């Protein structure tokens, strides 16, 4: 199978999965107890005329299939409807908040990749007490949930030491990076430990390979052995784990954004869920699903390039 055919097939599969996900996301609103009109009225009593007006305004009297396809058509045009809570277009809300979330995830991912690969490589190569110390530290990191790390970092570096802001997203790229440093570290702590342990295990397994023994017997310098024959052969496993890291960041950002009042789509999702703002919840849920699938698509396309031993479409066997 050629790379282009494989890529086209994966994109088609992603589109089909996203279509099914859109149906689930839209239909999930109607699984909540009570009618949408009762949520819009916030429990207040209303006349039948008022209820009928709400149903007419939000097309709640239309058949489910009609509402779904109307909503799906709007999504394809970039129109996610109108927010019930904020009384504005959901697309505008997302445009204002999505860049903050993406920057936060990018910062956290950079910290995770740099810290996880470095610690995992040192643990595998050095061994002994260094390996034990890194395993202990990563065990602590893996056992610390993101929201706990957020509280600890906020209390120490924002409240007590005053080195970083305790909340908000800032204005301008430099100010935003400063404001998002603590949230990014809170997101990254658990995942650094996970990636470090995966990197260490993959490299330890590669170190025991016959090709490493042969390379050393031929007098290949140790640094070159580690770089070419150990670390490179571990990249397939590491890349697969990195895809899982990004997916986890998409979920955990909701808790961290809420703790630091960042104002991204994670905090918006939490507020919209509380206020039963269905159009906003549906839009954010669909975006998260789309980002999750896009990450998996990128990983699938990169794996054969990173590890030539893999054939296209064999991610499961490689993992």
From TrEMBL:
Keyword annotations: Cell membrane, Membrane, Transmembrane, Transmembrane helix, Transport
Short name of one Pfam family: BPD_transp_1_N
InterPro entries: BPD_transp_1_N, MetI-like, MetI-like_sf
Superkingdom, taxonomy of origin: Bacteria
TM region(s), chain numbering: 102-122, 134-157, 177-196, 235-260, 280-303
Membrane-topology descriptor: Multi-pass membrane protein
Gene3D superfamilies reported for this sequence: MetI-like (1.10.3720.10)
Record's subcellular location: Cell membrane
An example molecular function term from Gene Ontology annotations: dipeptide transmembrane transporter activity
Domain ABC transmembrane type-1: 98-299
Primary localization: membrane
CDD domains for the chain: TM_PBP2
Gene Ontology CC terms, in alphabetical order: plasma membrane
Similarity comment text for this entry: Belongs to the binding-protein-dependent transport system permease family.
The protein's name: ABC transporter permease
Source organism per UniProt: Streptomyces kanamyceticus
């Amino acid at each position: 199978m050629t790379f282009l055919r494989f890529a086209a097939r994966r994109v088609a599969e992603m589109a089909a999965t996203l279509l099914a996900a859109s149906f689930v996301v839209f239909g999930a609103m109607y699984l909540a107890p009570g009618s949408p009109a009762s949520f819009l009225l916030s429990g207040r009593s209303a006349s039948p005329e008022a209820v009928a007006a709400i149903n007419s305004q939000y097309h709640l009297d239309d058949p489910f299939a009609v509402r779904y396809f109307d909503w799906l058509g709007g999504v394809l045009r970039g129109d996610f409807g109108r927010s019930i809570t904020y009384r504005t277009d959901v697309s505008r809300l997302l445009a204002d908040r999505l860049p903050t979330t993406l920057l936060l995830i990018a910062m956290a991912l950079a910290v995770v990749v740099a810290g996880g690969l470095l610690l995992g490589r040192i643990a595998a190569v050095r061994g002994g007490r260094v390996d034990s110390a890194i395993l202990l530290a990563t065990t602590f990191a893996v056992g610390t949930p993101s929201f706990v790390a957020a509280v600890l970092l906020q209390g120490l570096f924002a409240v007590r030491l005053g080195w970083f802001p305790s909340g908000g997203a800032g204005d301008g790229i430099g100010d935003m990076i400063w404001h998002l440093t603590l949230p990014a570290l809170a997101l990254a702590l658990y995942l650094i430990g996970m990636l470090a342990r995966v990197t260490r295990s993959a490299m330890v397994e590669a170190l025991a390979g016959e090709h490493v023994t042969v390379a050393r017997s031929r007098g290949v310098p140790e640094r070159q052995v580690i770089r070419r024959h150990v670390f490179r052969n571990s990249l397939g496993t590491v890349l697969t784990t990195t895809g899982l890291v990004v997916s986890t960041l998409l979920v955990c950002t909701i808790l961290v954004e809420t703790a630091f009042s960042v104002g991204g789509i994670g905090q918006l999702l939490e507020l919209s869920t509380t206020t039963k703002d269905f159009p906003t919840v549906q839009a954010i849920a669909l975006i998260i699903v789309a980002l999750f699938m896009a990450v998996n698509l990128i990983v699938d396309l990169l794996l054969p390039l990173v590890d030539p031993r893999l054939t296209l479409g064999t991610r499961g066997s490689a993992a």
